[in-house]
Amino acid sequence: MSGVSVTKDAKGAAEAADDLVVLSNVNKHFGALHVLQDVNLSIARGEVVVVIGPSGSGKSTLCRTINRLETVDSGTITIDGKELPSEGRELARLRADVGMVFQSFNLFAHKTVLQNVMLGQMKVRKTDQATAAKKAQALLDRVGVGTQADKYPAQLSGGQQQRVAIARALAMDPKVILFDEPTSALDPEMINEVLEVMQQLAAEGMTMVVVTHEMGFARSAANRVVFMADGKIVEEAQPEQFFSNPRSDRAKDFLSKIL
Ligand code: ADP
Ligand code: MG
């Protein structure tokens, strides 16, 4: 009996050692609203976690706390074993390890596509201009918008802009990329070109947290689905299990509305 438990503990320790992002007892309020309630979540290196749940359940806030775009009231967040401080140079360093892709692209409108992908490399990573340009072009090629490098964001389609935003995130060599509803602002015919890039990243082993309503993506790319409601993680499961046999009433209700 004890042999079994020793093996299990050892495995648990090995898994914990490979956790890249760990949220422990994270609480966050907006005034009276308890938007994150004792959230515990560990994301392993190379894992793709899809976060789903009703509007207002705290999904965006969860993402934003992971790179301290939002502070937390209590609890800890560690990135690759280092606890996120609330401010300062160490925060900037850790934050650079966490890429973020937003629903609204958030590209710099007055910079070309190439410059958008060069800037962070030069400012944060102190890469020289020629090296940054070369890497930017290679990343734009990789996400299929290499020919758009000299255009401005407004001259691109939404799907192309979002792929530029992904290239910009990749340019920082992040340890993890957070995607907050990356296809929600796109016309339907452009959703797949963005999901395909994300699928490819997932297949290459990128650690990803993806808030999305694209259940096809969740089924095919996620290692784990995290279901949130009212600021809590209500349920976590492998996609197969979650979609075929959700345990909580909240998840059943949510799935019946979207599937
Ligand atoms: P989701 O992404 O799941 O739709 P959010 O994390 O955006 O949810 O929001 C969770 C709740 O927190 C919502 O009720 C929202 O109105 C509220 N909220 C989000 N950001 C702020 C803010 N900066 N100030 C006050 N309330 C906020
Ligand atoms: Mg949101």
UniProtKB/TrEMBL annotation:
Catalytically driven reaction(s): a polar amino acid(out) + ATP + H2O = a polar amino acid(in) + ADP + phosphate + H(+)
Identification of the protein by name: ABC-type polar-amino-acid transporter
Domain ABC transporter: 21-255
Transport is among the record's keywords: yes
Keyword Cell membrane set for record: yes
GO cellular component terms listed in the entry, alphabetical order: plasma membrane
Keywords in alphabetical order: Amino-acid transport, ATP-binding, Cell membrane, Membrane, Nucleotide-binding, Transport
Membrane disposition: Peripheral membrane protein
Cross-referenced Pfam families: ABC_tran (PF00005)
InterPro entries for this protein: AAA+_ATPase (IPR003593), ABC_ATPase_HisP-typ (IPR030679), ABC_transporter-like_ATP-bd (IPR003439), ABC_transporter-like_CS (IPR017871), MetN_ABC_transporter-like (IPR050086), P-loop_NTPase (IPR027417)
EC numbers on record: 7.4.2.1
The family this protein is said to belong to: Belongs to the ABC transporter superfamily.
Subcellular localization: Cell membrane
GO molecular function: ATP binding; ATP hydrolysis activity; ATPase-coupled polar amino acid-transporter activity
Alphabetized Gene3D superfamilies for the sequence: P-loop containing nucleotide triphosphate hydrolases
Top enzyme class: translocase
